[in-house]
Amino acid sequence: METITAKVATRLKKRPIDSSKLQPHEYIEVPMGMAYAVDSIGATSDGHTKVVLAAGGGTFYAFTSHWNGLSQQLITKQQAEAVFGNPIYESELADLNDCLNRYQINTPARMRHFLSQIAHESGGLRWMKELADGSDYEGRADLGNTQPGDGPRYKGAGVIQLTGRANYLAFSNAIGDPRVMEGCDYVAQTYPFTSAGFWWHNNGMNSLCDQGATVEQITLRVNGGYNGLQDRRAYYKKACAVIQ
Questions:
Q1: 233: which residues sit within 8 A by CB, 6+ positions away?
Q2: Is 116:83 a contact under the CB 8 Å cutoff?
Q3: What's the rounded Cα separation, in Å, for the pair 135 and 143?
Q4: The model's pTM
Q5: Tell me, what's the pLDDT at 201?
Q6: 192 with 80: CB under 8 angstroms?
Q7: Confidence of residue 70 (pLDDT cuts 50, 70, 90)
C-alpha cells in the first residue's frame, strides 16, 4: 500500500478544479506533513492527480506538486547527480520529479535540455537563489515590485531564478500555494525546480525541444544570448549519456 504526504498545507478535492470554485463540502483541508494511505493513484489532469484513499476513504484530486509520493519518478538520484555533478537532497529530487511530471518534461529531448540548462544556471545545484541581495530590484514596476521590500523579498529563487512580485504571484496562482508570496527563501527551499518548470512551460520550451532544437537555440531562448554556452554544452553531453 502506498502513502502520500503533504509537502505544504493543501487540499484534497472532490473535483480537479481551482479551489475557489469548490464548495466547502467538496474538499478536505490538509496540514503540511499529513500522510494518507492510498489504494491507487490515477492519471494527472491539469496538475492534479486522482487518488483513491485506503479503507474506503474516498476518491479525491490533489495537486501533484503539493505531495510527496504522487509523481512518477522520471529521474533517479543517481542520474540527477551524474548530470549536476553534485549531491541532490531527497526533497529536491522529489520536487524535480514533481516538476518533470507537472510540466510534461518527460521525453529524452525535453529532459536533456531542461537538466543541462538548469545545471548551468544553478552552478550544478550550488545556487538555489540569487547571490545578490535583491536591492537592485526595489521599485521595479516592470517586475511588479510596488511595495517596500519587494526587491529583496522577491529576488531570484530556484534554479532559473523566478524574480519579481508579479512572477511570484503568477507562480503562486498557477500551483495553488499562497505561501509562495512569502518570498525567495520559501520558493528556493520548496519549489527550486517547479519554479523553473513554470518558466519553461510559459515559454514553450517543450515545443522547441520537440522540433529538434540545438543547445544553441535552447540557450538563446533561456538566456537571451549565449552566455555560458560551452558549459551548457558540457552539461548537455552528460545529460545525453544519462537520459536514454
A1: 215
A2: yes
A3: 13
A4: 0.81
A5: 95
A6: no
A7: confident
